[in-house]
Amino acid sequence: MAANIFFAVLPLLLPYACAQIDQNAAPCPIAFENTSSIGPDGPWWYIPLQVDFPDQRVKMLPTQSTMSIVINASACSTQGSSCPPPAEDLWMPFSEAWTSSNGPDQVGMEVGGVAWGIVMSTLLGLEGSGQYFTDRMTIWRGGDSSQLNYLDHQAMVVSNNYSVSYPGGASYTLDTGFFSLNGASNHASWTTANGSTATSNHTLPLAYENGFMPSKSYGMHIGSVHPNVTASLYLGGYDASRVLSQPVVANGTVFTLVDVGLNVTSGASAFTNLGSGHVRGLLSSNGSNVASLDVEVGSGVPYMYLPRSTCDAIAEYLPVQYDSDFDLYLWNTDDEAFEHIVTSPHYLKLTFASIDQTLQAINVPFALLNLTLDTPLVSMQTPYFPCRPVDDLGPSAHLGRAFLQAAFLAQNAQTNTMFLAQAPGPEFLEENVKTIDSDATTLAPATNPPSWESTWSATLRGLSSSSSDNSGNGSGSISSQGGSGHKSGGGGLSGGAIAGIVVGAVVALALVALLILWFVRRRKKSWAASQQSEQEEYKNVYAQYGSPGATTAPPQYAPIPGGELATEPVRQIHEADATLSAPAEMDVRQDPTELSAEESHGQAK
Ligand SMILES: *[C@@H]1O[C@H](CO)[C@@H](O)[C@H](O)[C@H]1NC(C)=O
Ligand SMILES: *[C@@H]1O[C@H](CO)[C@@H](O)[C@H](O)[C@H]1NC(C)=O
Ligand SMILES: *[C@@H]1O[C@H](CO)[C@@H](O)[C@H](O)[C@H]1NC(C)=O
Ligand SMILES: *[C@@H]1O[C@H](CO)[C@@H](O)[C@H](O)[C@H]1NC(C)=O
Ligand SMILES: *[C@@H]1O[C@H](CO)[C@@H](O)[C@H](O)[C@H]1NC(C)=O
Ligand SMILES: *[C@@H]1O[C@H](CO)[C@@H](O)[C@H](O)[C@H]1NC(C)=O
Ligand SMILES: *[C@@H]1O[C@H](CO)[C@@H](O)[C@H](O)[C@H]1NC(C)=O
Ligand SMILES: *[C@@H]1O[C@H](CO)[C@@H](O)[C@H](O)[C@H]1NC(C)=O
Ligand SMILES: *[C@@H]1O[C@H](CO)[C@@H](O)[C@H](O)[C@H]1NC(C)=O
Ligand SMILES: *[C@@H]1O[C@H](CO)[C@@H](O)[C@H](O)[C@H]1NC(C)=O
Ligand SMILES: *[C@@H]1O[C@H](CO)[C@@H](O)[C@H](O)[C@H]1NC(C)=O
């Protein structure tokens, strides 16, 4: 036992001894939990990881921020803390391995939430205090406790009492950490308590240099808890079965959103005042329509942070009510349209323009947008629609976990590219792991992928048309779709029900025939016109993004370096400013070599 501890401590003392890049390494699978989830704004699947030695299990959510965060056990035991239950799997910083390898001496001074990046801390409304530190993190490759990858002497932040707060005063103390997927900056430097400077490597660059993965990249689908879609994450690769469409590519980290719309895959529409079931052109900012919007995408924050007028435009068609205490929209669960919308193939459609100017839509079924506020934020579970209005001069728009339940996200730090594609619902192909090469600027989708609709067809049934008019009894679970790939979910229909369906079908057929007649006549007239106008709108977008210097580029969302802070009207970061340290931590696009020891040393004082 003593010898074991000795060998385990050794690498903590000699952090860089075995570093070696291996571009032929297989992608490293990171397993998510698939039976228990976390809140209090989810539910979300999380990654179980080990820190310190002997292993201490911790829970983490993946993030694009540079720092991984571990929660100090004291965060949930101190007075006034309000950790979401169960507050377990927290780090106790007392192990012999940690103390005997100078861990405590390397702990930095107290830093505010900005240690995690200004954008993240602002979006989350992060308050409280943490410290930079270094320790071992152990990855169980693919969740297999016999395949260990040690990330020794890793730079991380320990949260002593970081908390997330809401405008109405509710807040919770973080009891889930974050696993950094950022490969843009190699290391962090900070000032320790005794005044010296400590420097250590970030998670992804360290794993790469240790030869655990073939490139500084990852591919991820965070999946969803309700309905149950298991999450997938590979470092240095991706599972192609999670990629149903040609990925949209971003140069850097900013995607171009060109349209927001609603639609229904099959069956009747339960959208409020939207009998047709579809609408587009909901993308607006500051009260007026915009042709495009710059958005970042990341799994470290929960909501879809969009301009208020865009959230409002979507909400208009939903049985939701804006709640200023949470700055979110709460579902009106008494309205039967709520259940109809979240249990049938109603979806939010976000269209993006890739750097090669092709357009790709990512569809998010409303089944994934029925999320829940839970203790300690509310006393009773409260379903909410995860659109968080960002003010027009505030932080840029950001699509967080709510959106990523339906999207595949990948990033290659070595080519500074990011990829976004349609992810499947509960039914998807066999896993098919592919490597992301260090020079990759494109990713191949699954071969012969199923249609997005078909991956949901066994879970979400189209509404029969009677159930969508508000006079009925809302029994509308009979599918009106006959498409392929549709599994019959009912264990057994009674003879009466079958007879009912047959009669219903005959009547429906007659109605459909009439409708088609009417529709064909009507459509003949309008088709040509609408086709043309749609093409023209997209052409405008192409034009704007084809020429970066063009004066038509959207003015209000152009990234202004350092601009977020200067113009920041949003929530509380006041206290955080004063403790600002390690400036290179703030901006993932910044060149890592700019983080000189003296610079951060000076700033932290
Ligand atoms: C870690 O960071 C140092 C610089 O602080 C660098 O020299 C080293 O190569 C990095 N990589 C590893 C695996 O330690
Ligand atoms: C769910 O988790 C268990 C235990 O970690 C694992 O063995 C299993 O493969 C996972 N299921 C899926 C579908 O990934
Ligand atoms: C989710 O699905 C996975 C695999 O399909 C299964 O192992 C797991 O138990 C399910 N989790 C829940 C909470 O049903
Ligand atoms: C964790 O919390 C304890 C108790 O508040 C504190 O003494 C300690 O410094 C913290 N640990 C680290 C590594 O910051
Ligand atoms: C501070 O602590 C570090 C790490 O233990 C040590 O190397 C250094 O000598 C100390 N500096 C001072 C000024 O005590
Ligand atoms: C967090 O802890 C710091 C001291 O470590 C304390 O000054 C601060 O008031 C605490 N903040 C909250 C929100 O509890
Ligand atoms: C990406 O952006 C960088 C710097 O902004 C630029 O030099 C490069 O040419 C761009 N690449 C593509 C493919 O647009
Ligand atoms: C809405 O969905 C239907 C069914 O998938 C499709 O035929 C139609 O083109 C879609 N309409 C729009 C505006 O996207
Ligand atoms: C909404 O989601 C919760 C879990 O977050 C689930 O328990 C509930 O059944 C869902 N509501 C509907 C109508 O599907
Ligand atoms: C929003 O509208 C107001 C008043 O119309 C204007 O003063 C402000 O500059 C606009 N903001 C943006 C970001 O366009
Ligand atoms: C609606 O359901 C109730 C009982 O659940 C029943 O008494 C009533 O007759 C139904 N109404 C219609 C229009 O089907």
From TrEMBL:
Which InterPro entries does the protein's record reference?
Answer: Peptidase_aspartic_dom_sf
Arranged from A to Z, the UniProt key words for this protein are: Membrane, Signal, Transmembrane, Transmembrane helix
Query: Would the keyword Coiled coil be found if you checked this record's keyword annotation?
Result: no
Region Disordered: start-end pairs: 463-489, 576-605
Skewed-composition ranges (Low complexity): 463-481
Q: Which domain of life is it from?
A: Eukaryota
Q: Spans of biased composition, class Basic and acidic residues?
A: 586-605
Gene3D superfamilies documented for this protein: Acid Proteases
Has the keyword Metal-binding been applied to this entry?
Answer: no
The residue range of the signal peptide is: 1-19
Q: Which PANTHER family match?
A: GLYCOPROTEIN 38, SH3 DOMAIN PROTEIN (AFU_ORTHOLOGUE AFUA_1G13610)
Q: What is this protein called?
A: Peptidase A1 domain-containing protein
Q: Which organism is it from?
A: Salinomyces thailandicus
The organism's lineage is:
Eukaryota, Fungi, Dikarya, Ascomycota, Pezizomycotina
